[in-house]
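Archive entry: two folds, one per protein. Generate the first.
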Amino acid sequence: MRYVKLNANNNVMVRLTKQGKDVLGKYYQDQYGGTTPPWYNIDKDGWIKLRLWQLAFFGPYLYMGKVKLPFEMNMMVEIEDKEEDK
């Protein structure tokens, strides 16, 4: 196992559950009259790319014992290649 530095502005990809899609849909309906932001793009496999800090939006829906989570717990993190790795 190794650790890498991670910045809150790094991109992560998570797979939203039905609850996660519902939460975001309701938020955009309430805040923007249903207008979907351009970055809200879920791929064919259900993954959405967000900044790490944007996951904080789901904070009220993430707690111990919560059965219906807004996204699956496995995520992908975008790591920049170091110059010496190229």
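Generate the second and append.
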Amino acid sequence: MQDEIEWDASRHLMSQALLYQVPIPPNEDDNWTKSHQLGVTYLSRKGANKIRADIQAEKKTKRDSFLSVATLAISLIGALTGVLGATIGVLAFIAKKN
């Protein structure tokens, strides 16, 4: 029963690793455990933790990139709004004078 849970969790982690383009450890090292009950190989705790950490790092990198662009865009919108407001104020003053 536990092997089935570990195998299913491993499959999920590997699909996430593929999605985020994170390398999956080679099948020869201690990142894998062989289930004699199911006849499959699944990620050991060490391997699962490694992939999980790599996925989190990749997510953080993508999130930081997005936040940098979003911050720049919001700053530009704020600056343009200020310039537009000042321009409207100057035009209104000129129109009132004439």
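Annotation attached to the second fold: The longest strand covers residues 32-35. The beta strands are 32-35, 40-43.
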